[in-house]
Amino acid sequence: MVSTSIKAGTTWMQRILSLLVFGTGPLPDVLIRVSPWIDCRYVDPLDEVVARIEAQTHRRFLKTHLPVDALPFDERVRYVVVGRDSRDVFMSMWNHYRSYTDVMYAVTAAGDPPGGPLPRCPDDIRWLWSQWLTRASFEWEPDGWPFWSHHYHAAAWWEFRDLENVLLVHYNDLLADLEAEMRRVAAHVGIAVAEESWPALVDAARFESMKREGARLLGPMERFAGGADTFLYKGSNGRWRDVLTDEDLRLYDKAAGSLDPGLRVWLEAGGRPPVGGGG
Asked: pTM to 2 decimals?
């Protein structure tokens, strides 16, 4: 199970797992159907998603954006949780949000969406930043509007980081040493990989390769202007430095100051998280 907050490396980790399961050859379907987002309310009916999952004969790897306290935790499941600096999450979220088409706003407004209908992306990125850090879509979260809280998600999983079936992976580390992190993931989920296969697997998991193969991996994406090319945007960190002001960063310091100090350090820098979770 891949669990991330919004724009923290979800599709990247799904692609890594798809390569570990299937190798570099074609997938049996587009990635979002091979590895469905189980808590998404606006793509396919739940019974269809469940039936598709139950029909799978390969090693399953599902996606969720839920924190651990919203999941039926199962000791038999291997969880891979991806973390990322909140400021980088926001910049990626901004690109994601402003690329929504009318189709996306229509499907996310249908029915009775939790948190209310998604508002149109504002033109002012710094205004959205201020709202994202000071407003919440749900009463149990401290921030994250108009989506959900990156900090709440990270803090919930952080308490379970010592469990044998939970692996925390950081976006920075995927950028710095992709092969080492892929080997960690393979070991965690118990997939043996022939040594000679690693170079091709790692190359296929690089962001540039995913970008090049985006249409094949993800299929048509009418909910995003520019399709897969927009969805897989840059795969980089640090763009916030050219956007956010000192005043903006003070808002971040206040929000991040409520986190466990060790969690804040890990989110900002990556590396192996220290032991000592509550479990």
From this structure: 0.91
Q: Quick check: bond before 146 cis, omega within 30?
A: yes
Find the helix packing angle between 198-205 and 178-189, rounded to 10°.
Answer: 110
Neighbouring C-beta atoms of residue 279, cutoff 10 Å: 9
List of long-range contacts for 41-48, beta carbons under 8 Å, 24+ apart = 41/111, 41/113, 41/114, 42/107, 42/108, 42/110, 42/111, 42/113, 43/107
Locate the DSSP E strands across the chain.
2-3, 63-64, 79-83, 166-170
Instruction: Give the residue carrying structure tokens 């986190």.
Output: 259
CB atoms < 10 A from the CB of 268, how many?
Answer: 16
Query: Identity (one letter) of the amino acid at 253?
Result: D
Q: In the structure encoding, which two tokens stand for residue 114, read together?
A: 């939790």
Confidence of residue 229 (pLDDT cuts 50, 70, 90): low
| 9, burial (CB in 10 Å: exposed 0-12, middle 13-18, buried 19+) | buried
Q: What is the pLDDT of residues 43-67, one digit of tens each?
A: 778 888 899 999 999 999 999 999 9
Strands 2-3, 166-170: pairing is unpaired
